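Hi U.,

Before I forget, here's the chain from the pilot set. I'm dumping it here mostly so it's searchable later in email.
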Amino acid sequence: MGQRTVLRHLNRLGAFGVSVVITTVVGVLAIPVVITNAGSTIWGVIALGQSTALLFGVLVSFGWGTTGPAMVAGMPPEARPQMYIDSLVSRLYLFALAAPLAVLTVWLIAKDSPGVAMLASAAYLLPFLGASWFFVGDARPGRLLLFDTLPVTLGTVFGLIGLIGTGNVYVYLSIQAGMNLLAVISSGYLIRRGSPSVPTFDFSFSKAMHRLRGQRHGVVTAATSSLYVNTPVLVVGAFLPGALALYAMAEKFFKYGLTAVGPVVQVLQGSIADPDRARQDARVRTAARLAPFAAALGALVMALCIPWASSLLSQGELEVGFDLSIPMGVVFGAVAVSQVVGLACLIPIGEGKALAVSTVFGAAIGIPLIITGALTIGVSAVAWAVAVSELAVAAYQLKVVAGYFRRTSKDAKAAVAG
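Structure:
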């Protein structure tokens, strides 16, 4: 890999990293402000609505958020805007289906302030109509920042100002909903107007549904992954409501950690794939070997930081102990491995089906353990159940990569012998 290539990847990493830093900093600072002005219970209810939105958001994004960057990167630039507009039409129909289901779900689960949970789920569902994945595949971190990250982040900032000024949490969530919608509209307008040949909207329902067929591996992967990542909050909210805010705080750090890993995965997604198979295989091998070691270090840092950081951000109201921070650290490490190996390695070597199978495998293990843990031992068992399922996913994906190299090595030897 030449010096120019390395510098190009570093520049892209830094550019994508700006969006991550802004999102993370504002998100972290929002925690103490919401808890101070609305209370830890309401903050937990908002987290419940957010997790519900993340769960149903998989239905809205329908795999484009998972496989979309690679699809965009592999298309001629002039064909990309029409593909995005087509996906947006399909996702609008899916949003019309998912939004009522998300609102109904939190209404049934939330025992405290169901109205807050319902508005939160609707507000946080809107970004799944956005174009973040398109900008990643198009290698446009500046557009990602200005037309996606910035409006959403400003929605949080303005919402916090509204919350401080009025003391009304509905003001906070309504402002966020409005800015999230603005991000969707502005991104779509930019992509459409910036195309040499202006893409057309075709609202044919049959065509919109037909486009979903090509997303089956992506949506299975995203759906099952989201199911067992976001199910714990729903289970804790339903069976252990008193521990909801505490678990949500621990999980929040895990999700911010994944956000920090995002730019690395984005760069790898665009750099590992290569027409030269030998070069691609070498990159896959390196990424798969290094990912577990880097993830283990991240897991250790996460486990040690959550207890004091949770107390700091909640001003002493919510202090997460090591009984939760250690399994959450393990969860972070395992998911970091599966992000790199699953999204950046399996797709280039043609193992998209294995990616989907791995997430189904994890969900099959995790969901029964999560529910059992909540009903028997308590909230720490829920976290360990997630950790076990995520470790299983990472191990399966690494095994698939190892199997791929065994096959290629055997094929190479056979070719030489022949």
